[in-house]
TrEMBL record:
Signal peptide: none annotated. Residues 45-64 bind DNA. Keywords: DNA-binding, Transcription, Transcription regulation. Residues 22-82 form the HTH tetR-type domain. It comes from the Bacteria. This is Transcriptional regulator. InterPro entries: DNA-bd_HTH_TetR-type_CS (IPR023772), Homeodomain-like_sf (IPR009057), HTH-type_TetR-like_transc_reg (IPR050109), HTH_TetR (IPR001647), Tet_transcr_reg_TetR-rel_C_sf (IPR036271), TetR_C (IPR011075).
């Protein structure tokens, strides 16, 4: 299943004397996401996170200095940022790979609950702004590389509005999966790619 690759990020196999520490760290990550999904970031309790992981609160503070620190590292670990869209020889092929990677992340049951909460909390408080910036930077960095390759191949104009392009690429998929909770098939992604290629050539 596509979800498996995301879940496996929690199950890094440690070696030697670090086995117990690594296992506990993985348990704390899982507990943190479960609590976040159930209670939202504001209602998230590190005491409950520790209890769910079968540990004391001190186990959290030995690893992270704050709730924000564990949130930032946990989000990166979960793989919400989109990276490594390699050169596939054409804009359409790379857009498809990019959207399929994004769909894989958005299908995860915890991501579907946590991601909207991140943006809602970011609008209410500045605490999560660095985390939002990290998410945007990872996604947009991959998008910039993809657009620059398309320009180099002559598929897009050098004068393309890059910021608008980076906004357009993920918008329909995010809206469909997270806002209106629609199941997006590979065929639908294919139609999004056709529309995106036409749109990107026009801006």
């Amino acid at each position: 299943m596509e979800r498996k690759s995301i879940d496996e990020k929690f199950r890094r196999k440690p070696t030697g004397a670090a086995v117990m520490r690594s296992d506990l760290t993985d348990a704390l990550y899982r507990a943190f996401f479960e609590e976040w999904a159930e209670h939202g970031y504001t209602g998230l309790s590190l005491e409950r996170v520790a209890a769910r992981a079968g540990a004391g609160k001190a186990a959290i503070y030995r690893r992270w200095p704050s709730k924000l620190a564990i949130a930032s590292e946990a989000i990166e670990r979960l793989g919400l940022t989109l990276t490594d869209v390699s050169d596939r020889g054409g804009l359409a092929e790379e857009l498809e790979a990019y959207l399929l990677m994004m769909r894989r992340a958005l299908r995860h049951r915890l991501v579907r609950k946590i991601l909207p909460d991140i943006y809602a909390e970011g609008a209410r408080s500045s605490e999560l702004v660095p985390l939002l910036d990290k998410l945007a930077s990872g996604r947009r960095g991959a998008g910039v590389e993809m657009i620059e390759r398309a320009i180099a191949r002559g598929e897009l104009r050098k004068e393309i509005d890059r910021e608008l392009a980076l906004d357009l690429v993920p918008s329909a998929l995010y809206w469909g999966m997270i806002i209106v909770r629609r199941r997006i098939t590979r065929e639908q992604i294919g139609r999004q790619v056709v529309a995106l290629v036409a749109g990107l050539k026009a801006i």
